[in-house]
Amino acid sequence: MILAQMYYKLKLLTYFKNELTSKGYTLKTIAWIDGQLDLLRNLIDQESFTVLNQLLRKTNYRLLKQIDKGKENLIDIYLNPNDWKLGKIEDNPNEWTNKEALIFSTERQKLVFSKSINGQKYLDNKWQ
Prior knowledge:
Layout: H1 2-22, H2 27-56, E1 64-69, H3 74-79, E2 85-88, E3 101-106, E4 110-114, E5 122-123, E6 126-127
Antiparallel strand pairs: 1-3, 2-4, 3-4, 5-6
């Protein structure tokens, strides 16, 4: 999955930048890395939106507006959908503080993928 590779490269580049900074390299020297990190973050945002849009095709919530929190959990949701549940954030407001939650907005409401809620399960290749 390309999204997993992007996250790996983001972590690697961030580590490399931090090591160069700790060794005394100037901002001018690492400006190129900062540019690459910004570009990679933008690509991750776009790819995350695309992947979540594909997942939502198997639901009643197809009009994705934005990802609000937890896009790093999208890889696990995509690879292990049976471990996750889909629900409305208004029924589960404590999910805003859960690190293992993906919160997103559709045109009509805010929803959450989480392991710890009562919601729709992934059965027969769709969320129900």
